[in-house]
Design brief:
This protein is an alpha+beta fold. Helices cover about 50% and strands about 15% of the residues. The chain has three domains: about 5-275, Butyryl-CoA Dehydrogenase, subunit A, domain 2; about 280-455, Up-down Bundle (Butyryl-CoA Dehydrogenase, subunit A, domain 3), CATH 1.20.140.10; about 460-500, no CATH class. It has helices at about 5-15, 35-50, 55-60, 80-95, 105-120, 125-140, 275-315, 320-345, 360-370, 375-385, 390, 395-400, 400-410, 420-435, 435-445, 450-460, 465-475, 495-500; strands at about 20, 25, 60-65, 70, 145-150, 170-175, 180-190, 195-200, 215-220, 225-230, 255-265, 270, 350, 355-360. The strands form four sheets. A six-stranded mixed β-sheet has the order 2-1-10-11-7-6, with no helix packed on it. The structure holds iron/sulfur cluster and fe (iii) ion.
Length: about 500
């Protein structure tokens, strides 16, 4: 049930052929390919964590579905504490990898389908839930590496799916055994390092768009699937065979996955044309994923703070008041992301009787909104502390050239306790983590672009109630009906359905 990291790598290495392309060429073995190996190593860390003394209490959970211990990345949250463990686990895994370890989207997809199929079952349609539970058991028993695919390519943003069918993944045919789907999903994290992908709709659908309201899972080696892996900042360093410039040599990737008339057997279909539910599904998923960023991004923040602190010490400025101020500011920003992620967890919401613990949607959206901003601030502050060397340092190949090494060591030396090589190593680590896709671009667009969170925040804050409080205290209104809760929030559509 609990795979080791090595077992995961072997499973990926020996799977059936999957059509994966990197920089124009088809990849034979993703576990050995220099561009993808860093991703495999980061993914692997989610398996190793279940066996490492410092993390196994976070990385293991008890599943009531298979009556056994499972890797938490396949676990269905059973309590607010479970959701808090998620945040702690993600922060710790960022420390172990210095990268995005890519397994959370599939995990959030499992929890989303659990809640959504359950809500649909409570309305009378039980097949999806029953199928999903069977699938969940299979995933938990085999500790499957999952990716999650939500974002459609979307084409012209003002056009609806049925007005531009190729821009959204759709069902093209339904038979008694299954369905056929065509289309593409974009920006899919870790897709080439996963064994299966869970596909979900990307937005609320109208009746006219019902063939786009589809959720299912499929192994990556299914006929008709192609993956085109995208490029990232500094990604060429992965191919250089070095040991400094590409640090931490663990990374993530995103890719475009194309479905060309792919057959999905009915037992893997978890939503089929239920257009009324697709908005709810998206809301549930996005809140789960927005909460998670409080863990992984604060974990990367720790790596950056540690590197900046070390570089300050290397040049003897760590006690300067303005440096201490900047370090304090980085900690403040970082712990804010973590704190809101924890609040989203511990103030969780129960959407159905036997469990279905959903994150607090206000705090989850606040977490992600902070994450669209604070990593940029943290990167700016760490660049400030590191000095210009972060953009101009000589390469490891210069350091390895005996003619140059002496000069580099002489002229880039700071406090004598630290070697110049040490300085360059930390500089490279800082550069590659603080300017990474995972820390910057994904922080803006992952789990929905900034405006998506602002819409939710604005919708669920009850301005009218806050206004009533103000009027009451100003003696304009003589009385007020205080709500039971202290927070002036409205229920989301999801909560309304959950409580019906
Ligand atoms: Fe997990 Fe964070 Fe990567 Fe998303 S960005 S997959 S939450 S590590
Ligand atoms: Fe993400």
């Amino acid at each position: 049930v609990l795979r080791t990291g090595e077992e995961y790598v072997n499973a990926i290495k020996h799977r059936n052929k999957v059509e994966i392309y990197v920089m124009g060429n088809e990849v034979n073995d993703v576990t050995e390919h220099p561009f993808l190996k860093p991703s495999i190593l980061a993914f692997k860390a989610t398996y190793d964590a279940a066996y490492e003394e410092d993390s196994k209490h976070l990385a293991r959970a008890w599943s009531v579905f298979v009556n056994d211990e499972v890797n938490r990345f396949t676990h269905i949250h059973r309590s607010p504490e479970d959701l808090a463990y998620k945040i702690k686990l993600l922060r710790k895994l960022s420390h172990k990898t210095g990268a995005c370890f890519q397994r959370c989207v599939g995990w959030d997809a499992l929890n989303t389908l659990y809640v959504t199929t359950k809500l649909i079952a409570e309305k009378g349609k039980k097949d999806y839930y029953e199928r999903f539970i069977e699938y969940l058991k299979y995933v938990q028993k085999n500790d499957i590496a999952l990716a999650g695919a939500m974002t459609d390519v979307k084409g012209v943003r003002t056009l609806k799916p049925h007005e531009q069918p190729h821009a959204y993944l759709r069902v093209t045919e339904v038979t008694k055994d299954g369905i056929y789907v065509s289309g593409a999903k974009a920006n899919i994290t870790g897709i080439a390092a996963a064994e299966e992908v869970i596909v979900m709709p990307t937005r609320a659908m109208s009746e006219k768009d019902q063939e786009f309201a589809v959720a299912f899972s499929t192994p990556l080696d299914t006929e008709g699937i192609k993956v085109i892996v995208g490029r990232q900042i500094n990604d060429g360093r992965r191919m250089e065979n070095g040991e400094i410039d590409g640090l931490p040599y663990r990374s993530n990737h995103e890719g475009l996955i194309v479905f060309d008339n792919v057959f999905i057997p009915m037992e893997r279909v978890f939503m089929l044309k239920d257009w009324q539910m697709s908005g709810i599904l998206v809301e549930i998923f996005s809140a789960y994923h927005r909460q998670g960023y409080g863990g992984c991004k604060s974990g990367l923040g720790d790596v950056i703070i540690g590197a900046a602190y070390n570089l300050a010490k290397q040049i003897g400025v760590e006690k300067a008041p303005h440096i201490q101020n900047k370090l304090t500011e980085m900690v403040l920003l970082n712990e804010n992301m973590y704190g809101t992620g924890m609040a989203a967890s511990l103030d969780a919401i129960k959407l159905c009787e036997d469990g279905c613990w959903w994150v607090n949607p206000m705090f989850a959206n606040i977490t992600k909104q902070l994450v669209t901003r604070f990593p940029y601030e943290i990167t700016k502050l760490s660049t400030d502390i590191a000095g210009g060397i972060i953009g101009t340092a000589p390469s490891e190949w210069d350091l390895k050239n005996p003619k140059l090494r002496q000069l580099i060591e002489k002229y880039l030396q700071g406090i004598m306790d630290y070697s110049t090589e040490e300085r360059l190593r930390i500089v490279r680590l800082l550069e590659n983590v603080s300017f990474s896709v995972a820390f910057l671009i994904e922080s803006v667009h992952g789990a929905g672009s900034p405006e998506a969170q602002r819409i939710v925040i604005n919708r669920i804050y009850d301005y009218d109630y806050a206004e009533k409080i103000a009027k009451y205290l100003a003696n304009i209104e003589k009385s007020i009906n205080f709500k039971e809760n202290a927070e002036p929030w409205k229920k989301t559509d999801t909560e309304k359905i959950g409580k019906q």
